């Protein structure tokens, strides 16, 4: 199935995939590089039934970035429940079989499972989603120097992840175009200049959806304590957090300016914010981000 969208309205992944001849009749046939990374590339996801692996696999299929026949996933059970509506997707248990089939291997197991992976990538392109595992460790463990580290977040499940990535020097320009197109299916993908930035963003955006969840939890507890019904408390918290975030994004306002603007009323908001700041909410957030960052660079 092919999607026809006006050039100006095409999302980034669609523009790139068209360059790889995904849509017939619109081929940049002048580039050998583009031909090499054409629709023939098979994507394998190790851990493709887990939270992140499944989110990426589903996004690739639903957005027609990869056809079912070009997707292979491995899981411990070999049964591809998550992919039952996509019979063309190959689900395997043996990661060596996946590696033999795939041109690009996405690694989406937990960091503690990395050491027990017995595969040899023979310099195939690998995209690791693992937190706390440096490129060098991935290269040593999997036998490929073409390593991309990418950091999704839980919002990949609804295609709203911030998905930064860093490529080792052996990754080619064509590889990078492919990576950007694959990851953009889950939200906003962005190449980073250094691996250091990726480690930092593991704490900020990788872990990020947990932070509004904590805020929502504490607001909800407070609303329940104030005697609101469960239904109204939940609706009020969710609509407020979503609406407030969309307001910042839509207006493009500097967050600090929005805080000042609301404090300037010198009313209820000012009382609430000043108390939270006097109690050390900003320092608590900074200390939390520092701790998550430390964990990202020196795992226990
Ligand atoms: N969940 C999140 O919000 C984020 C996760 N990450 C990273 O993504 C990676 C995956 O995390 P999740 O998807 O949340 O974990 P998960 O536990 O949901 O998924 C991991 C999957 O890998 C499978 N698995 C383990 N060993 C395997 C093997 N040898 N062969 C095939 N499959 C195997 C497991 O059965 C499981 O289905 C982690 O390394 C994590 O650091 C990064 C950013 C955010
Ligand atoms: O908590 C973790 O280690 C992973 C990385 C960022 C989000 N989840």
UniProtKB/TrEMBL annotation:
<protein>
    <recommendedName>
        <fullName>Pyrroline-5-carboxylate reductase</fullName>
        <ecNumber>1.5.1.2</ecNumber>
    </recommendedName>
</protein>
<comment type="similarity">
    <text>Belongs to the pyrroline-5-carboxylate reductase family.</text>
</comment>
<comment type="function">
    <text>Catalyzes the reduction of 1-pyrroline-5-carboxylate (PCA) to L-proline.</text>
</comment>
<dbReference type="InterPro" id="IPR029036">
    <property type="entry name" value="P5CR_dimer"/>
</dbReference>
<dbReference type="GO" id="GO:0055129">
    <property type="term" value="P:L-proline biosynthetic process"/>
</dbReference>
<keyword id="KW-0963">Cytoplasm</keyword>
<feature type="domain" description="Pyrroline-5-carboxylate reductase dimerisation">
    <location>
        <begin position="195"/>
        <end position="295"/>
    </location>
</feature>
<dbReference type="InterPro" id="IPR008927">
    <property type="entry name" value="6-PGluconate_DH-like_C_sf"/>
</dbReference>
<dbReference type="InterPro" id="IPR036291">
    <property type="entry name" value="NAD(P)-bd_dom_sf"/>
</dbReference>
<dbReference type="Pfam" id="PF14748">
    <property type="entry name" value="P5CR_dimer"/>
</dbReference>
<dbReference type="InterPro" id="IPR000304">
    <property type="entry name" value="Pyrroline-COOH_reductase"/>
</dbReference>
<feature type="binding site">
    <location>
        <position position="75"/>
    </location>
    <ligand>
        <name>NADP(+)</name>
    </ligand>
</feature>
<dbReference type="GO" id="GO:0005737">
    <property type="term" value="C:cytoplasm"/>
</dbReference>
<keyword id="KW-0560">Oxidoreductase</keyword>
<keyword id="KW-0521">NADP</keyword>
<comment type="pathway">
    <text>Amino-acid biosynthesis; L-proline biosynthesis; L-proline from L-glutamate 5-semialdehyde: step 1/1.</text>
</comment>
<feature type="domain" description="Pyrroline-5-carboxylate reductase catalytic N-terminal">
    <location>
        <begin position="43"/>
        <end position="131"/>
    </location>
</feature>
<keyword id="KW-0641">Proline biosynthesis</keyword>
<feature type="binding site">
    <location>
        <begin position="46"/>
        <end position="52"/>
    </location>
    <ligand>
        <name>NADP(+)</name>
    </ligand>
</feature>
<dbReference type="Pfam" id="PF03807">
    <property type="entry name" value="F420_oxidored"/>
</dbReference>
<keyword id="KW-0028">Amino-acid biosynthesis</keyword>
<feature type="binding site">
    <location>
        <position position="95"/>
    </location>
    <ligand>
        <name>NADPH</name>
    </ligand>
</feature>
<dbReference type="GO" id="GO:0004735">
    <property type="term" value="F:pyrroline-5-carboxylate reductase activity"/>
</dbReference>
<dbReference type="InterPro" id="IPR028939">
    <property type="entry name" value="P5C_Rdtase_cat_N"/>
</dbReference>
